[in-house]
Amino acid sequence: MMGWLPVALLAVPLLGALVLLLVPHTLRPLLHTYGLALSGVTLALAVLLAATFDYGRGARIQSEVDLPWIPGLDLRFHLGVDGISLPLIVLTALLTFLCFVHLCWGGARRAFVRARPRALVFTLLVLEVGMIGTFLALDLLLFFVFFEIVLVPMYFLIGIWGGAGRRAASIKFILYTLLGSVVMLLGLLLVWTRTGTLDIEALSAAHGAGMPRSVQILAFVAIGIGLAVKTPMWPLHTWLPDAHTEAPTTGSVLLAGVLLKMGTYGFARIAIPILPEGAMAVAPWLGAFAVVGIVYGALACLAQRDLKRMIAYSSVGHMGFVLLGFATLTPVGINGALFANVAHGLITGLLFFLAGGIKDRYHTADMPSLGGGMLATLPRLGSVLTFAAIASLGLPGLAGFWGEMLALFGAFQPANGLPRALFLTYMVIGGLGAVLTAAYFVVMLSRITHGRPQAATGAPADAQPEAEPSEGPEEEPWEGPWEGVTPDERPVVPLGSPEKRSATATLKPSPAPLPPDEPTGTEPTPGARRTVDDIRSYELLAWTPLVVLILLFGLWPGLLLSLTTPAVQTLLGAAS
Amino acid sequence: MIQQIDYFVIAPPLALALVAGLVLLLDAFLPARPRTKTVLGLVTLAGVLIALGLVVTQAIRGGPPRSTFCVPADLAAPAGLCSFVVDRFTLVFAGMVLVAAVVIVLMSMTELAAGGIPVGEWYFLLLCTLVGAVTLPASRDLIMLVVALELVSLPVFALTAMKRYDGRSSEAAVKLFVVSVVSTAVMLFGVSLLYGIAGTVYLSRLAAVFSGRAPAPGVAAGTALAAGQDLPAVGTVGVVLVVAGFAFKIAAVPFHSWAADVYQGAPVPVAALLSVISKAAGFAGLILVLVTGLSGQAATWAPIMGIIAALTMTAGNLLAMRQRSAVRLLAWSSVAQSGYILAPLATAAAATAQGATATAALHAPTAATAALHTPAAATAALHAPTAATGPATATLHTPALTAVMDSATPPETMPMGAISASMAYLVIYAAMNLGAFAVVMLVSRTATRNELDDYRGLAFRRPAAGLALAFCLVCLAGLPPGLAGLFAKVFVFREIVEGGSGWLALIMAVNTVIGLYYYAVWAARLVTPAKATAPTRHRPPPATWLAIGLALVAAVLFSIAPQLVLNMTSFSAFG
């Protein structure tokens, strides 16, 4: 009945992008509002989709569209929404909209206008088509097509608007993910040749009937590798830190907030329901890689100096929890995974926005150079950062907690047929990982927000590192793992003047001498900075929804869980 | 004996040949003025369009495949042995070649406008190549195939050398000449071996012999070859040599090394012609020989095709990665793409195996009765004016065998899916590759060296061209929004996975990623701001834009509705 909604969700950004391509110049003056309006309409449609969703039947596919596209390939244009995909669709639309908000008003605006705004709006809109389409698709090949659509826009987003090492990072990103998705394509085709259908709905209902165990395992591994690259799972994650670090703020937000979810969503939508026996066989391995990822991500975070890079590695850890939840193959675990998925999108999206904001102000994301005392110099920014970090480390009452808790809880009692002792071990290691997660966020906060602002100098942008005593007491307990790194924090003395171009630049009224590719913000005079330059209004606008949602889902997890639970139960149908 | 010729069937090549003669005459008699160039170009274009129109008319008329140059009925040949057959396969190839030819003629107009190249000869040779390329997919006997293939190749040497006084061009022409002649010699040797075994040059008859439905006069015992049974060594050598001959044409490993030098030395339209029309002709011949003629021996050639495909795509991609010149990059990339097109053929063995063994089991006892055949029949036939009719009529003296021939249903044993995938890929490849070449042609007018760095900032200097090239490259890489390339790869992957060649699928997967690297690097250059190039406002002629537009429209169309290609290329059977 509401079949037009999914189509409209894709058509609005797509047509918007095409219009931009066809009439390049007429829209130039309206460009900021154009992107904002289109993504706003998309968000409105997504909200409408959520509003018309029949919550009583969350397990059923709703708002279905099913049209033949390429009969020769059995490929049907089959879209639909259920309890698993709905939150992700809304999340995607929301994050894209907030990215446009961030781009339209803001310090980013000047850089935005200079650096090919039309192409940027175009890229983001196409990206949105791919992301929403992935969550809507109910046909294996259609899923694959949408899965691939995001690659090229993201490649250009990183490659054109990214930081200094953008070339290498963007190439690495696209090659790595393509390798994954081609392997996934082989798996999907294997499923297809064995079952003769591409319809995800029918395949999930069949629960792997018609495919022998060996084929299921092979297909699960192939599809799993493709999804794991995107997720990313531990040994396949190496593209992620570079891509996140080099990407512009909007790129990082969408990458962490949505693109990673496409991988995990694939597990819930395709790999586990369609190949239950394969999932059962591979789950212990998946769990093992997941917990390694949790611990590895946390340890890697402890060793990072760059704020964006640290958040990127924290994604590896968080996605480890999501994968662990899937690996348990229990309703609890998968619910937890899906919850953690959405929570991570909100929290990490916020964190990347904040990192972008900090980079805008200080022109560096190097934590030691940032110095400390942000709570004193920029109290609002500092407190939002504190909030986001605490949410991310999984404080009860905030969104980050429930997903991880449920995933670990699922590991406590995995599905029948899975080795319980092994999963108990995973749970313990995962719990340890959660502690480590808390550790690196606390360390990060102590480095950036706490402590004394730089001794006596004016602007925070001076990036004077901490004086010794302020860091000492708090960090001492954690210092073990990265002792080797600590001396690095204070090569200090020359920092203020000669080599940190950024630092000197901010002291001047105009940021003109900055390299053109650096998305710099407007920098008012140093004196006015501390008060004026705290959270700006557009930032407040972009961040508030995320903060509110993090609080909402933290305090009322049932809101999301009630949506996913029935869907998860049908999805696991035969498996449990 | 009077041959009845169905002129409607041979109309497309005939029209092209007539126009070729006309162009030569016009060039001789028209005054040498600049406008003459345009006139000749337009006449050529009209000729190509007429041929295309005829092909389309043949396609619309539909009905059963029509054939001509047949063994006359009064000689009571079993199922018509014909040299020239127009069926879906022929029409698709001819149509594709002619559409590609339109683009290439448009590109030639730009190239020739610069002067320095004799116009009349150029168009004459181009049309001659097209005659060969249109004839080749219709050929159904080995001699006709070889002649048509030579007709495709020979004019190209001259076309390559047309840029006189350009050392590189001459070198390329000599290289192409030597390689091509050697490959022809190799192939002819293979053809003669096959003929020696089967005693026939007709593909349908070859198919009967090699799948054991008819006796093989050339085999010592004079018995039939059971399908699945090993060929005598000489037969295997014959198959391998024929494959090698075609591998030269499509620049497959290990006969690929000429590609880059020749593409770079030749004028850009000729490079495009080599990479699309010449290559399509090579594939048409290869598919005809292997699938129509030697389908019974798929077990022999399918593994070879698999290995060649894997090597070709890997070598092409690896070599393309290090190229700085745009044309050389496209040359290696088209080698790699040849590998993808070959890949489905490797699965033909799996598809034919069941069908072939079934028919073999059915026919083995009756086939043995054909022992009265002697090699003498074959050798005698060589001297007869209508070479191939000898053995064909000879078979008819065994009534049991005729019955077998009638009941035999070769189409069921043919790997239709594999051919369909290969052809679909070829059609889509033609569109996207021509688009890329057309833009390269445009850039080559301002940047003589035509290196990748010359493409920096193309998207700003010439947004339309930059965008078109970016789209074609993304298509070639096989990523959305270039859905045409993506689906082409999906067709191929599906065939391979279905055929059970997992190793080949994995190699192709890795190759797709390697391929993406150089396409992405090139595409990224298009949007990298150029460092202060002097803007030579050089108005490109409209013909180039038409060429780019045509190729681009085809690529976009195939992206939106890949089903079009599938409808074209999925056959029920060969004629």
Task: List key phrases describing it.
heterodimer; A: 576 residues; mainly alpha; globular; B: 575 residues; two-stranded antiparallel sheet; 23 helices; 2 strands; 2% strand
Structure commentary:
The complex is a heterodimer of chains A (576) and B (575). By secondary structure, chain A is an all-alpha fold. Chain A has helices spanning 4-22, 31-52, 85-104, 108-114, 117-136, 140-149, 151-161, 166-195, 200-206, 213-230, 239-246, 249-274, 276-302, 307-328, 331-362, 367-370, 374-377, 379-392, 399-412, 420-448, 468-475, 501-507, 526-532, 537-555, 558-572; strands at residues 62-70, 75-81. In chain A, strand 1 (62-70) and strand 2 (75-81) form a beta hairpin. In chain A, helix 3 packs antiparallel against helix 5, helix 7 (151-161) packs antiparallel against helix 8 and helix 14 packs parallel to helix 19. The longest helix of chain A has 32 residues, at 331-362. Residues 455-532 of chain A have low confidence and may be disordered. Chain B has helices at 11-29, 34-61, 88-113, 119-135, 142-160, 167-198, 203-210, 233-249, 258-265, 268-293, 298-321, 326-342, 348-367, 375-383, 389-395, 399-407, 416-444, 458-461, 463-477, 483-499, 502-527, 542-560, 563-569; strands at residues 66-70, 82-86. Chain B has a two-stranded antiparallel ribbon. Chain B is globular. Chain B starts with 10 loop residues before the first helix and ends in a 6-residue tail after the last helix. Chains A and B meet through helix 5, helix 6, helix 7 and helix 8 of A and helix 19, helix 20, helix 21 and helix 23 of B.
